[in-house]
Amino acid sequence: MKTRVITGIFLTALYVALYFAAETIVFPIFWTVACLIGLYEMFKCIGVLYKPFLTVPFYLLGAVMPITIFLCEDVHNWELGFFIAIFFIMFLCFMTALFSKGEVPLDQMAISFTSGIYIVIGFSLMQATVEFPFGKYLWLIGLLGTVMTDVFAYMCGRFLGRHKLIPDVSPKKTVEGSIGGALFGMLFIVLISLLIRAMDNSVEIHYLRLGICAFLIVIASQIGDLLMSFIKRHYGIKDYGIIFPGHGGMLDRFDSHLAVALLLFGYNQMWPIFSEIIP
């Protein structure tokens, strides 16, 4: 428990540092490193670590995407090239399975492709989120909503939990913990948004959109967590890594954040939550 608490304090300091570095080159560099570590953990988990035709393309894509997004003048300028790269990697993965003479089964190729793309997109969209107008605030509500959902799901589950949520995937998670985490997560999103509005008079908050987004964030957060747990259970491992003592690997810590990043990027394109107040 002591190790877990110390790591939690370190992670809190890391989140604070990332917030203040959100508009600098440090931000995309961090997500690049996180993405590469996450890919390594996933490929090790599914047993393709030493099959370069399945792994190297994702490492290359993960190494360039966050920084490319940071360097683009418009938040959408990188999208075409990214999708072309995805189709190229998909073709390469199929060819690898086709000509491997059975060394790369089709199901192994499929999980390598889908998990690799999911990780690269998730970590890349951490960067893309802050490229929106007031994107720093958008990233912050996603971060805090995810963290608080996780913290209060654990606390409510520990003290109030009676009914298992999905025991085959995550034996310790409960229905009561899931509901409690969602409620407190939404509450913190609203509170931090009100604080943002109080501290920055130039920003307008669309509260109906915020409320809907808050609900979707706490749902996506828990689904992202369960998704990564599902893969771990399938391959019989407890944690993806040991980079965060007491918390596991990069994917163990950022599993929920990947799903929330996907949600925020798509949602904010259609219904922006923050906008500039026009005098």
Q: What letter string, H or E per element, gives the SSE order?
A: HHHHHHEEHEHHE
The biggest beta sheet reads:
2 strands, antiparallel
What percentage of amino acids are in beta strands? 5-15%
Beta-strand segment tally: 4
Distance between the termini: 52 Å
Tell me the domain tally.
1
Compute the number of helices. 9
Could you say which structural class the secondary elements and strand pairing correspond to? mainly alpha
Portion in helices: over 70%
Shape: globular
Low-pLDDT ranges: none
User: How do the strands of the widest beta sheet line up side by side?
Assistant: 1-2
Using only CA atoms, what is the Rg?
19 Å
Mean pLDDT, rounded to whole units?
Answer: 92
What do you see in this structure?
- The protein has nine helices and four strands; from the N terminus they run H-H-H-H-H-H-E-E-H-E-H-H-E.
- With 279 residues, it is mostly helical.
- It has one domain (2-276).
- It has a two-stranded antiparallel ribbon with strand order 1-2. The chain has a two-stranded antiparallel sheet with strand order 3-4.
- Strand 1 and strand 2 form a beta hairpin.
- The radius of gyration is 19 Å and the shape is globular.
- The N and C termini lie far apart (52 Å).
Short description:
It is built from nine helices and four strands. It is mostly helical. The chain has one domain.
